[in-house]
Each structure stands twice: as C-alpha cells, then as structure tokens.
Design goal:
Elements: E1 11-14, H1 15-18, E2 20-23, E3 37-41, E4 44-49, E5 59-62, E6 71-73, E7 79-80, E8 84-88, H2 97-105, H3 123-127, E9 130-133, H4 136-179, H5 187-194, H6 207-220, E10 247-250, E11 276-279, E12 284-285, E13 288-289, E14 295-297, H7 299-303, E15 315-318, E16 326-328, E17 337-338, E18 342-345, H8 353-361, H9 363-372, E19 374-375, E20 379-380, H10 383-387, E21 390-393, H11 396-438
Parallel strand pairs: 3-7, 11-17
Antiparallel strand pairs: 1-9, 2-8, 3-4, 5-6, 5-8, 10-21, 11-14, 12-13, 15-16, 15-18, 19-20
Helix pairs in contact: 4-11
C-alpha cells in the first residue's frame, strides 16, 4: 500500500451502487458480417456488424452458459450481445473502468452464478456483489502496478506458448520423418553399408516378402464361416514411392482374419465402479490410452459386444468428433471394451503394432482420415475407410527400430511439455495471486 492512503480509507460498496447493469442486445446470427465493428459475445469477439452500440470500452460480465461469471473488457466501438451484462458508469464514477475490471476478477464467481445445468448471472445477483472502493488516485496506482506485473507475466506466458508450439511442430516432424523412412537407417541402407551380399544368409526380409508371409498365414488360419475372402489390396497407382525394401499394404491385410475390425459399444449405460474398463474418445491422446479417468461398464453390457472385447495389443482409432486419434490398447485393459466412437483393429503378430499406430498418427495420414469423415450430428469416419486405408510396411526389424526412435524422441517432448504445462498453470495461479493482493491492499 502507498503510505499516503491506508487500508482504512477503502470503502466497500455493492456493484449496483457503482454502476447501472444492463443486458447487451439480441443479435441474430444472420446479422453477423465479414467487416464492420466487432461483436463481443460471452467469451470474446464472435464476428462483425455494420453498427456498434458502445463507443468506449466496456466492462462486461458473461451471464449465460459455460462462461457465466467471466469478466471481460470489450474493445471500443463494439456491439455487445445479450450473453453479457454491461456495466454502465455514471458521469462522475466512484471507480475507474480498469479498476473495476480487475477487481471483479478477484471475486469468487460462485457468488454471482446460479444454476448448474444452465449456469447464469442475473442483474439482481450482480448488483449485490461487494467491491472494494479505495480513493481514485489509489485505484489508478493499483491498476498501474497490476498492469506492470501482468505485462511481465504475459511475456513469460507468450514464451511458454512459443515453446509449446515448437514442441508440437517437432512432434509432427518426428512422425513425418518416421513414416518417410528418414528417422533411422533403412534395412536396405544397412545391407549396403555392411556389405551383405545377395546370397548372404544375413539378407533381410523385405516389406513385400513380409506381407506375402502375413497373407499366407492369414489364409491358412481362417476359421470363419464360408469361403475365405482376400482382404482389400492398396490402390498402388494413387500412392507415392516408398524407401527401398518397403511396400504398401492395407489395414485390413494386417488385420487378424478371425477378428475383424469392429465398432464398440453403442449404449454403455451408467458408470459401474467394479465393471470392465471402457475406452472412450477422450481417453485416447498422443498415441496413448489415458487410464486416470476411465469409465467402467457392466460385464453384461460389455458381453453383448464380443467383437471389441479387448485382449491388449489392438489398434484403437477414434471415429467420431476428434477424428483419427490412435493408440495401442495396453495389456492392462484386457477384458475391457470400447465406445461406439472408437474403432478396434486387431493386428497380426507379424507386424509391430506400434509401427501401424505411428503410421496412422503421422500428420499426413491423420489429415487424410479427417478428409474422409462426414458430418452427421458430429464429424464421423466410417470404419470401412480405415479398413482400406493404405499402410506403408517396412521390414519388421526396421519397424522395431523406427518405433524405438520415435518413442525415445517423443518421450523427451512429453517431459518438456509437462514442464511447460506446469509453468502455464503456475502463471494462472500467479495472476490470481496478483489480483488477490491488489484488492486486499498488499500489492503496493
């Protein structure tokens, strides 16, 4: 606190005593335009309009939906929708806009938000909020100190965001290099560098030879009903060239003959604490199944979907909403099942399942799968498009080396990402700490 003003000089006032609170204006979506004045919705700019309601910046309280209670500051010359409460200041205000903007951010949102299914902030709830009101010179000093500290904090956050973006690009570059045969030496390159002769026993099995062996064993192990049908072959005319020793296959060719690709459980029911693990779209991220918040369903419901009963080692791919996320099912989930929005591809033991997962996770393949999706209620990918999807098949030993190198590099990325995320969370807490100190008289 400044020596000139003591904490005792601060007065507490209800928000309704300081400002007039009104709802913003209704704006039909069809009135949004590509150019004009910004339209401020519950959480920021949502478009433009040919006119504006407020010439100066406005302090707003989001009053409907998930952002209820969030405090915003609109830009000048802005249209404000009825998803926000507008705080209109009198000609001789007792508080400055910036002071009130920061002061309301230090207030517990729960004091003004009502409802859980449809949270909202009413004018009556907002009007009774208590706000500290120091003398105007003190308000200006507090705002200046807050903004000085926020400027430093935001510079640090911006640097962390840049690191985050660089790590994301590096992750994509690693996956791209892996799927183009540039991450580790290929078997063909090793043969040449090691001087293996054409008649040497050390000659490697090519991807084409590996695929032929897989298809022979697939045919021989057929135990289904009716005559065996050959799986779909890749459309080689549409595919780019591959590194020496690689070949093209389809996901269906690498799929077990007696365990076809399948969709998961349509109606899983309620969470059952002692039920079987249930893998949903949200559980799959960055090539892994996250186990922390996994739902469990009843054994009775899971038993109705035997085709997606998990054994461990299957490729899971998300088909609804977030298209194309992939992971290999860990052995710990054996006996579990998956949601309808997650496709399951049981893979032959003759390929490294993690290589197939890396292939589907690489940016180009992920974009391809996304382009094949279509809109129903949500973006949806048909499992048939996954079955016939092309998969590059390197020699088995090369698959293993690629996977090991991808995991080594991405493990470093994950460690760095966790440090960045921890520091971003720390920045959020620090921001709130600055506000708390400011409005308890401890910042100056």
């Amino acid at each position: 606190m400044s020596a000139a003003v003591s904490k005792e000089d601060w007065k507490a006032a209800a928000l309704g005593e300081l400002v007039t609170i009104k709802y913003g204006k209704m704006l039909p979506t069809k009135e949004l335009s590509e150019t004009g004045f910004p339209v401020f919705g519950a959480n920021g700019i949502i478009g433009c309009h040919t006119k504006y309601l407020y010439e100066d910046e406005q302090v707003l309280i989001s009053c409907r939906g998930a952002y209820s209670g969030k405090i915003n500051l609109s830009p000048p010359q802005c249209y404000v929708t009825n998803n926000s409460l507008v705080l209109e200041f009198p000609a001789q205000p007792r508080v400055t806009k910036r002071f009130l903007f920061y002061g309301l951010q230090s207030v517990d949102r729960s004091k003004m938000v009502t409802g859980s299914a449809q949270p909202q902030v009413t004018i009556n709830n907002a009007e009774v909020l208590k706000v500290p009101v120091p003398p105007l010179p003190e308000q200006r000093r507090i705002v200046a100190e807050i903004e000085k500290q926020f400027t430093r904090l935001e510079a640090g956050v911006a640097a962390l965001r840049r690191v985050q973006a660089n790590l994301k690009r590096y992750r994509a570059a690693v996956l791209k290099a892996a799927c183009e045969g540039r991450l580790v030496p290929t078997e063909a390159e090793l043969q040449k560098s090691e001087g293996r002769g054409q008649k040497s026993k050390a000659k490697f099995e090519t991807g084409a030879e590996l695929l032929a062996r897989i298809l022979t064993e697939r045919r021989q192990n057929w135990q289904g009903r009716g005559q065996y049908k050959e799986p779909a072959s890749p459309k080689s005319g549409d595919l780019p060239s591959l590194p020496e020793g690689w070949t093209w296959a389809t996901a269906q060719q690498l799929n077990l003959a007696n365990r076809p690709c399948a969709y998961g459980v349509l109606q899983p029911g309620e969470d059952v604490p002692n039920g079987v693990p249930f893998v949903r779209v949200g559980d799959i991220n960055n090539g892994k199944v996250e186990l922390a918040n996994m739902k469990r369903i009843s054994t009775t419901i899971a038993a109705r979907y035997p085709r997606t009963k998990l054994h461990g080692g299957e490729l899971a791919i998300t088909l609804v909403g977030a298209i194309g996320r992939t992971a290999i099912i860990p052995d710990s989930l054996a006996g579990g099942n998956t949601a309808r929005a997650v496709g399951i591809i049981p893979l032959t033991k003759q390929v490294n399942a993690h290589w197939v997962e890396v292939w589907f996770r690489n940016p180009a393949k992920n974009a391809e799968m996304d382009s094949k999706s279509h809109e129903v209620a949500r973006k949806t990918l048909n499992l048939e498009d996954v079955r016939i999807a092309s998969v590059a098949l390197p020699p088995l030993a090369e698959q293993t080396r690629i996977v090991a190198e991808v995991e080594r590099r991405l493990s470093v990325v994950e460690e760095l990402e966790s440090v960045v995320c921890a520091n971003l969370q720390r920045a959020i807490r620090l921001r709130q700490s600055i506000l708390q100190k400011a409005f308890t008289g401890e910042l100056l």
